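To whoever is on call:

I kicked off a structure prediction for a single chain this morning and the downstream step that reads the tokens threw a length-mismatch warning. I double-checked the sequence; it's 216 residues and nothing unusual in it as far as I can see. Pasting both halves so you can look.
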Amino acid sequence: MRRRMAIPVMMLTLTAASPRPQPLADWRIEAESPDARVSTRDGVIDIDTPKGLTLWWRRPIAAPVTISFEAMAVAAGGANDTVSDLNAFWMASDADGGSVLAHPRSGAFAAYDDLRTYYVGIGGNRNTTTRFRRYIGQPGNRPLLREHDLGAPADMLRPNVWTRIRLIADGRTVAVERDGRRVFTLADPQPYVRGHWGLRTTWSHLRIRRVAVTRS
């Protein structure tokens, strides 16, 4: 049996040991509010926004691929410290197959309805829902299977705690893992195999670190 070996194709230069880290140059920010703030310090991306915001990684990705990162929902008394909406798109393209970077969007959630993409929202709707969706490129249509709609407290965000996320697109298998636990799995007969990935949130304060994109 052939054994797959994980081969890093790109590691975001986001470590304190890096002599000249330039993490924000690797991302394109789409923010609904001019008051949104995205900054970096000691290898951590800080996203503090009163409205919708998407942070697209500029380099395209192709399956089989795993995207991993650690995230924290900050609760420290700030105006946006709501502990909500740790979200992500992956394998995203425009409905016609074009690059998501070719058509900048406003940062409002509905502006992304026309993508063909996988999407996960952890602690959405003010930390009451955790959902996985396969967008089909139709505005106003965000398909949601019953088994991909979770509401248990264990599936929500915990304030000020780092959680490890893995987004997987391995041919027909698409999955989300959290702290080593498989949360969602989809056997997709027509998988999305290339595109971009991005972090997404709304009215929240998130911190992101240890971002890696690997092919297997």
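Update from on-call: the warning came from a stale cache, not from the record. Cleared it. Sanity check on the structure: DSSP finds one helix and 14 strands in the chain.
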